[in-house]
Amino acid sequence: MKELLGEPGFLAPSGTIGADVSYLLAVVFTVLFLVAWGMAKKAQGTRHHKLILVSMVSMIIYFVGYYYARSLGVLSFEGREGFGGPDDVYENVFKPVLITHLTLVVLGMILAFYMLSQGFRASKRVEGEYLLKDGELKVSPRKFKIVMFTIMGCWGAMQVLLLATRDNPMGASIAYALIFLTVALVASLEKLIEKIWPDGANRHRVLGRFTMIVYALILVTSTATYLMLYFIYPLES
Length: 237
Known about the structure:
Helices cover 73% and strands 3% of the residues. The protein has 237 residues and is mostly helical.
């Protein structure tokens, strides 16, 4: 997988297949989310539901696959991998943008899982159409425990997979541990979110707008990183 991602790309002379595909998919997913958001604003609930479901599931599969192969960007912090610019630009511009991008990606994945679940819980079907339902929306203590145990189980399974497939899994292991810890913390914050926005429909609308902003920023930081790596400061061959 790493060998394929490292092959010469098709968008930039110094780019790679992995970088080109990653950037193009970032554009595609952002456009799909914006289209789905427009559907929601036009009260086209069923079309919004279907497009968001397909787009988010596809995005999650892509993120897990690509960032697993790339060790979630861990290699980028071990040295100036792929960056051919001066040290001050690397430290003061490129690295902060990269860290911001990876942080937004992690947040975007968390929001994807949360919004999919919250969307199902906050909606109802009326004559085959999905509509947001007004009213208080809470997670029962039993369901909350199931969610937390599921997160712990997924983290354990990922650690086993890393140990079985990598010679030195420490960096990726720490990265995934932080991700699952963040997911667990967000799940724990559900109780606080319920108090701030007890109405399920209003909560979905507010967090939906915030999620769209996050995905738009992911595209912006992805574009900036791509341009710096492969157009402005490519490695000299």
